[in-house]
Amino acid sequence: MKKLVLFILCFCLIPISNATQTLAPLESSELQSYTSTVCAEHANPELCSKAFYKFMGYIKTNDDYFYFCKKQKEMGMSINKESCNKSQALREFLDNPES
Description:
Elements: H1 2-22, H2 28-39, H3 45-74, H4 81-95
């Protein structure tokens, strides 16, 4: 019985810890570091950084809208299906851009 309980605990805790490690949010300093790396060889690194942050803003807005649609659906409220579908499609593309 003890082995069964131990197995269940390990089975449940390992996926949770892995998910936490993979989904840990970036700190702003990490994002700035990645941006510097991406834009290092650009002809105008400052412009590249501004464009990158603007792009990240669009992704954040899309993500906010995706969750808004999800909550509206869960509550049985009406949604703009076309916009929600676009938000879902972009999210799926970002999850798997090579498909």
